[in-house]
Specification:
Blueprint: H1 3-17, E1 22-27, H2 33-45, E2 48-51, H3 55-65, E3 79-83, H4 87-100, E4 105-111, E5 114-116, H5 118-126, H6 130-163
Antiparallel strand pairs: 1-3, 1-4, 2-3, 4-5
Helix pairs in contact: 1-3, 4-5
């Protein structure tokens, strides 16, 4: 690759890394094109990108973007997954995919600017997603209010039943 082309690749990859909340490095030696495409589609569905970049170029781009710790994991055949939103989503997809495809292995990454080991990526993958957390919060907030509404409704029904005139027997 010519120097000019390398500089362009570094510049483009640096831009892609900027603003990332999570960057995961995995090795997927031996995956078929169909399997890689399937994984990319799953990651794209949650807003993450999955790129193959030469390790030396990726290390230079990571350093330029402020993720110097990423170079620790850039050895061997690597693929970089970039998430600019949900930190947990990309970790879940990668970890779940690695459970069914032995040829992919998460080797580490950087989350919110801090280097994380494969074990820490597993911990993030086990956390509930943002949508699940919002649902939990809403159920917690809504629980007491719906309980109060049921109690008030029961009182109203009881008073309505007591105030209703007794039905006359049919003759």
């Amino acid at each position: 690759m010519a120097t000019k082309q390398k500089e362009e690749t570094i510049a483009v990859f640096t831009e892609q890394l900027k603003g990332a909340t999570a960057i995961y490095v995995s090795q997927n030696k031996g995956l078929s094109v169909v399997e890689v495409t399937e994984l990319r589609n799953k990651l794209r569905a949650i807003g993450a990108t999955h790129k193959v970049v030469k390790n030396t170029l990726a290390a230079r781009a990571a350093k330029a973007a402020g993720f110097a710790d990423l170079s620790t994991y850039l050895t061997g055949p690597t693929v970089i997954t970039i998430s600019k939103g949900d930190v947990v989503g990309a970790a879940k997809v990668l970890t779940d995919y690695s459970k069914t495809h032995e040829k992919i292995q998460v080797v580490g990454g950087v989350i919110e600017g801090k280097a994380v080991s494969p074990a820490e990526v597993q911990v993030f993958a086990s956390l509930p997603s943002k949508e699940e957390l919002i649902g939990m919060l809403l159920r917690t907030i809504n629980g007491p209010a719906s309980g109060l509404a049921r109690v008030i409704n029961a009182i109203v029904e009881k008073k309505t039943a007591a105030a209703a005139p007794a039905a006359e027997p049919a003759a």
